[in-house]
Every structure is written in C-alpha cells, then in structure tokens.
Design the sequence.
C-alpha cells in the first residue's frame, strides 16, 4: 500500500497527522529563542577625548601621545591604535583574549585620572568605553532622491 492510497482511503487519519505536525511546529516556534549574534565580549576598549579648538597635530602631541604612554602600562594590552582628528582623540586598546574588561576599564580610568594633570586645561574628561558588538546596528542604509529631506523621510 502506498502513502497516496493511505491518504485517500483514510482522510481523517491524514488530517489528524497534519494537525499534529502543525501544532508541534507552532509550539516549537513560540519557544524558540532568536539571537542574531552569540554573546561575545571582544577584548577591545576605547578612550575618546575632546579638545575643542585644537588641530590634529596639537591633539596628537598634547593628548594622544600622552594617553598612549599612560595606557601602555595597563595589564594585558596586546596592541594600541590611535587616531587624532581636529578637536578629538581616539585611542583603541586591543587586549588579550580572556581579559576581564570591567577590571581593565577600571584600571584604565585610574591611570588616566592619575595622569590628568599633564593634559591642557581645555581638554575634556576622557571617556572610556568597552566595544560591544550588540550596540552596533544590524543594518544601515541611505536614501537619496530628487525630493527634499522631509519628503524622503
């Protein structure tokens, strides 16, 4: 006996099997956890500092280089990258895998506070942040057209 013969000769059994599969599928779907990215702590921390009115060379010599020197003494530092822009300094620390980011950022704040006196008076308080992939957008897109910005929005 073929499956098609069974489905034609016993329609109630066929309908009941389909309903059981649909109910089990619905129950499974509602209890399914959806997460786009797994929980990961990348060992990367960033220090952003604003120095209003200063050019990139001033920012590099008066802020970025001094921050690099201070942050180079933090434990478990693998690599230091820095960017100096007009009025802003960004120092990125790459740490060893397995490093506790909470303790490391606390150590970074302490070292920056100890060396705060070497910065010019106009420099704002440096901001220490952990890099978290969950705070990044899933998708970014742009829209252009002949209309005005309000109409496009």
Sequence:
């Amino acid at each position: 006996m073929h499956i098609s013969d069974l489905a034609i000769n016993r329609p109630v059994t066929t309908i009941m099997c389909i309903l059981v599969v649909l109910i089990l599928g619905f129950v499974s779907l509602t209890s399914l956890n959806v997460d786009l990215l797994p929980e990961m702590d990348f060992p990367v921390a960033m220090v952003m500092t604003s120095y209003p009115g200063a050019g990139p060379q001033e920012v590099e010599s008066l802020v970025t280089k001094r921050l690099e020197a201070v942050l180079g003494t933090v434990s478990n530092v693998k690599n230091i990258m820095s960017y100096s822009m007009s009025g802003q300094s960004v120092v990125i620390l790459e740490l060893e895998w397995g490093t506790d980011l909470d303790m490391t950022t606390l150590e970074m704040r302490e070292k920056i506070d100890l060396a705060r006196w070497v910065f010019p008076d106009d420099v704002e308080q440096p901001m220490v942040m952990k890099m978290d992939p969950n705070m990044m957008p899933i998708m970014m897109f742009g829209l252009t057209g002949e209309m005005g910005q309000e109409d496009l929005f």
Observations:
- The mean pLDDT is 86.
- The first strand starts at residue 44 and ends at 50.
